[in-house]
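Give me the 3D structure for DUF4961 domain-containing protein.
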Amino acid sequence: MKYIRLINKKWVYTNVLIAIVAFLLTMCLFLDGIEYPETVVANEEATFHMKVRVDAADNSDNVRLVIGYLVPKSWKASENTTVSYTSSIDEGEMNMSLIPTESLPKNGGGVTWSQGIKAKYGFGPNVLDDMEWVAYWSDRVYNVANGEDITADIAITTKIGPDNLRVKLGFFVNHTNDGLSEDTDHFKVEFTDCISVTDGEGDVTDFCELHFNSAQPLSASKDDIVTLRYQGDIGDNPLDPYEEIYLCSKVITDKGNEYAVCDATSKSKMMKASTFGRTFSLTFWPAGFYGVPEDESILRLEYTFTNADGSVELQDEEEGGSPRPFVYTFKCE
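Predicted structure for DUF4961 domain-containing protein (333 residues):
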């Protein structure tokens, strides 16, 4: 005798869907806020706090908490940062460590944690890209039970870098059982408002807002290649009517000598980045561009942007409205 088993396809589909949803919701993460100072001091330590909440919807075994921290590269955060936390399921203070580069996120496509977070968020709301994500995970490996609600206060203590700047830091939270998936229930990210670094070296580098001028790299020696840009799309300015923009500049060396290039020639003419925009740039080798002798080091570069005959000049403005040249500081690293 044959028996025919009838299967309700709708019942199978519904139950499979429920199983998938239950799997995906094993651990929902929330970033309930970050606490940070509005001003920090160069070369001194500062502490930032992440308020994390975990809502476990199923049992999760062998899982670590993961955070990412977006900072300027000049802070060298991986060398100068400690991360600890207290939680509702631990006794006392627990530690987090840098994630080894060989421990890849399960859904990261073969990149490291830091690379994967950068791929998702870049440098956040900052306008300069000289930043990096540094990733940490909990030293403790957890088994989390279904229905368990966990809170954690993560303290990130960093030695602030040497430069005066303004920047928006980033904070990211995830866990190893998810590993950079596309499911936002498992990760959260938040960025600070603009934080000022004071009492440091050089003029203020502003990561927070676009300006008419920009320079790459952010710091250089006389032997590095430097690119200066006039970004006319930022707002109305005196050079708006002109299609030819020139760099008028000089460098000051450690021997007190000045070397200038200010004539409107092909040497100082800035190249337009595209047909439709108002960004112009000039890339050069400072020592050769200004003819600086080998026995002198460049301390700083002062520059303005002009039209072809020099009758219109765009400068920086100090607080109070007084014009002054833009300044680029050189240093050896």
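Confidence is low (pLDDT under 50) at residues 1-25. Let me know if you want a second pass.
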